[in-house]
Amino acid sequence: MKEITKDLLREISEWNGEFKGAYNIREDGGCAGRVSSKNIKIESKKDEPGLEIFIAANTKGETVSIPACITHGDIDDLVYNDFFVGENADVTIVAGCGIHTETGEPARHNGIHRFFLGKNSKVLYLEKHIGKGHGTGLKTIDPVTTAELEENAVLEMNTAQIGGVDKTLRKTEAKLGKGAKLLIRERILTEKEQTASTEFKVELNGEDSGVDLISRSVARDNSHQGYHSVIVGNAKCTGHSECDAIISENGKVDAAPELHARDNDAQLIHEAAIGKIAGEQILKLQTLGMTESEAEAAIIDGFLA
Amino acid sequence: MLELKGVSWKTPDGVGVLDGLDLTVPDGKLVVITGPNGGGKTTLAKIIAGIYKQDKGQIILDGKDISDLDITERSKLGISFAFQQPVRFKGITVKKLLEIAANRKMPEKEMCEILSKVGLCAAEYLKREVNSTLSGGEIKRIEIATVLARNTKITVFDEPEAGIDLWSFASLTHTFEEMRKNLNGTIIIISHQERILQIADEIAVVANGKIKSSGSADKMMGTLLKGTEKAVKCPKQEELF
Prior knowledge:
The structure holds 2 protein chains of 2 kinds.
Chain A: H1 3-13, E1 22-27, E2 30-35, E3 40-44, E4 50-55, E5 60-65, E6 68-70, E7 75-85, E8 90-94, E9 97-100, E10 107-117, E11 122-132, E12 139-141, E13 144-149, E14 154-162, E15 167-176, E16 181-190, E17 195-204, E18 209-219, E19 224-233, E20 237-247, E21 252-261, E22 266-275, H2 279-287, H3 292-304
Parallel strand pairs in A: 1-5, 1-6, 4-7, 5-8, 6-9, 7-10, 8-11, 9-11, 10-12, 10-13, 11-14, 12-15, 13-15, 14-16, 15-17, 16-18, 17-19, 18-20, 19-21, 20-22
Antiparallel strand pairs in A: 1-2, 3-4
Helix pairs in contact in A: 2-3
Chain B: E1 2-10, E2 16-25, E3 30-34, H1 41-49, E4 56-61, E5 64-65, H2 71-76, E6 79-82, H3 94-102, H4 108-117, H5 122-125, H6 136-150, E7 154-158, H7 166-182, E8 186-190, H8 194-198, E9 202-207, E10 210-216, H9 217-226
Parallel strand pairs in B: 3-8, 3-9, 6-7, 7-8
Antiparallel strand pairs in B: 1-2, 1-4, 4-5, 9-10
């Protein structure tokens, strides 16, 4: 495994020389290490690049890590990973992607993840995306995530892209069965000339299903972000989405939330707020001894925490 | 000692608020600044903290001219300011805000002691965000906790009673009394409240942009209660009930 890969792993997946539990490390489109556990089997797909990850029913407290690293330019990496989560399992999946380039050539990672959550299963999905190095070539990460949640399954997705990625199109789609819950916490920071677009579509199909979608973004310099969420309530369900954005310098943000109630008992809420850092917030932190720039940094760090 | 000499300030629209105000605040005292609405009390507090910059006059702290220092520099010299309308932050927790205030990692036990002084059960609050889920009374107490965490030589409270319920107000008064006993520093409270006036060492009445009268609390309370200072009123009182 390359040193650059090790550095990226430390940032995207809290790797400290080893992983706890099952893992597969993807390095420049190849495999730099794989370990399955008794309950979590990782296998290569036969017809396309990617993995099939089988998590046995009733697996409790285990973690599976599947980071992807790109260490140089001129790579266009496409991968299809499928996760089959057995009934009653309760596991953590650590994904994430790091791109490091030192040249003018572009690099792209396009990770297509499909999740199939069995009855009463619970998954915590952690994903960090970063771009590193002095390369001037475009660093692009375009993740596509689809999830199907069976009865009473719970998927909690915690995703963060904090700088360094030039271009991103994130697509997340989910279909929820009876009593299933989806919690999404997304954090995106763009700066310089970067662009990021995030699209959600959640179909609440089962009775008492629910989604809580919280997106926080910071657009600095000349960067641009787009947010588009679609929540469809097809049954008695609860849907909540919240899009908060801080803009600074010439940062631009578009937010377009959509709610579609298709059942009389669907309760759907959307909240959105876009604005620069409130002057009062900076003043308060200055009265606590911070400089203006320290205050701005603390406000943004907290907002994206 | 904090001295204001001939301080004047106009709003950006040119409306005069402070007009050659002189005030001396001795060390280790609890000084309450009162007076009619629009008289310049909050402006005075913000001038001391550096949030507003005076058009004329000088501000002297322990013999040093701090007139041209900004908010951060004054804060570092030991001036704290509790906002009348506390600011909310999405994402910043109570714990983080207290650490920013104290400028150090603070043991949880110490944070709990500070929060309990303002009547909050610490364990429930440390992880909470200082956002709109906190009630008006809760955020007010957290605001006061941030200045307590700093423990500086001068602490200015701008109408601490605003937006707080009566029950909380009683414990708040107690908190100020405790602060007076335990702090070496000076406390300046902008207030309309008789209960706050009663715990003062000194009282100054600001009206029409000047100190109209000032002196020891004993002397001043007599004058205020006799009604010779007719300008003193309490427009916020209805919020207490």
